[in-house]
Design brief:
By secondary structure, this protein is an alpha/beta fold. The protein contains five helices and five strands. The chain folds into two domains: 48 residues, no CATH class; 92 residues, no CATH class. Helix content is 45%, strand content 12%. The strands form two sheets. The protein has a three-stranded parallel β-sheet. Strands 1-2 form a two-stranded antiparallel ribbon. The radius of gyration is 29 Å and the shape is elongated.
Length: 152
């Protein structure tokens, strides 16, 4: 059975002959499926592979300004959770970004073991999470610069 009337179709100076068992460069799986059935199978496999591997989403962990670290025990608990998250994402070659406000950065300076540095060492992103509320642009810029210097 031919895909094109009379088994041929003119395209410029070239003829497409469907049903000859040859999937030439002028034919495709839409117009000459019987000639290009192998190509159809390959395209289907490529589509399945691409679909299986193409999940994309972003994860950002915010260490909010409301966090409080009254003691090292509280800080260590948060760090344990952060490490677990970082290690889990790393295990699956997935990336996260951790954004921190001032309380975590100050606690890291005080107690050490900064999980933001650990995240960077494992290829993840870190950033400043700034709760500027009603600051002027100049105040916000200065607050951002100060936090950035302390980040890692």
């Amino acid at each position: 059975m031919a895909c094109v009337n009379n088994d041929t179709s003119e395209q410029g100076d070239k003829h497409i002959i469907c049903g000859d068992g040859i999937c030439d460069r002028m034919e495709n799986t839409t117009q000459c499926q019987e000639d290009c059935i192998d190509q159809l199978h390959i395209e289907s496999e490529e589509a399945e592979t691409t679909a299986e591997n193409s999940l994309a989403f972003a994860t950002v962990v915010h260490l909010e300004g409301q966090l409080r670290f009254p003691d090292k025990r509280t800080y260590d608990k948060v760090n344990s959770q952060l490490k677990e998250i970082i290690d889990l994402f790393s295990e699956y070659d997935a990336l996260i970004t951790i954004e921190s406000e001032t309380p975590y950065i100050e606690a890291a300076e005080k107690y050490g073991n900064n999980m933001l540095s650990y995240a960077l060492e494992h290829g993840h992103g870190v950033g400043i999470h700034c709760d500027f509320d009603s600051m002027s642009q100049e105040q916000a810029t200065e607050a951002y610069r100060t936090r950035k210097k302390k980040l890692i």
